[in-house]
């Protein structure tokens, strides 16, 4: 079946020979390996794994939980913020989905970007859940090893700025 199947991607290494009217595909598995392999990505992955091994995954999780709990505390302290999911970092990753009042998450994402705060806005590949929640979309903030408490505070301050813009 693989021998008879045409390649689904085009690029270097998947072609054995090219004529004006046709091409001869390379042998398996090369005919399905279009383009140059991501050697840099493989090397970077190795370096990242080494780094995380030095830091320790328990330390990574502890930091992520502390930031997530702090962000949940700040967000849930705002009357017009709806937080979705568990209300503590336990039982969730370093991700918080939320909405701010009647501000559409895409508008909120644009405003926060102006404040130097990057979030994700949309249905996050879970449209059935959004329908169940009665939401078209949510805003989503993520926290990890490289984030700081100051950045969590910047998120909260940027929500205040968005609130002021939409109040006018």
Would you give an account of this structure?
The chain is an alpha+beta fold and 168 residues long. 43% of the residues lie in helices and 15% in strands. It contains 5 helices and 6 strands, in the order E-E-H-H-E-E-H-E-H-E-H. It has helices at 39-55, 57-76, 105-114, 127-133, 149-167, and strands at residues 15-18, 23-25, 81-84, 95-100, 120-122, 138-142. A 4-stranded antiparallel sheet has the order 3-4-6-5, covered by helices on one side. A two-stranded antiparallel ribbon has the order 1-2. Helix 2 (57-76) runs parallel beside helix 5. The longest helix has 20 residues, at 57-76. The model has no long low-confidence stretch (mean pLDDT 94).
Name the helix and strand elements from N-terminus to C-terminus, one letter apiece: EEHHEEHEHEH
- Strand ordering within the main sheet: 3-4-6-5
Structure classification: alpha+beta
* Rough outline: elongated
User: For the CA atoms, what is the radius of gyration?
Assistant: 23 Å
The low-confidence parts are none
Mean pLDDT over all positions = 94
Ends apart, CA distance between termini? 63 Å
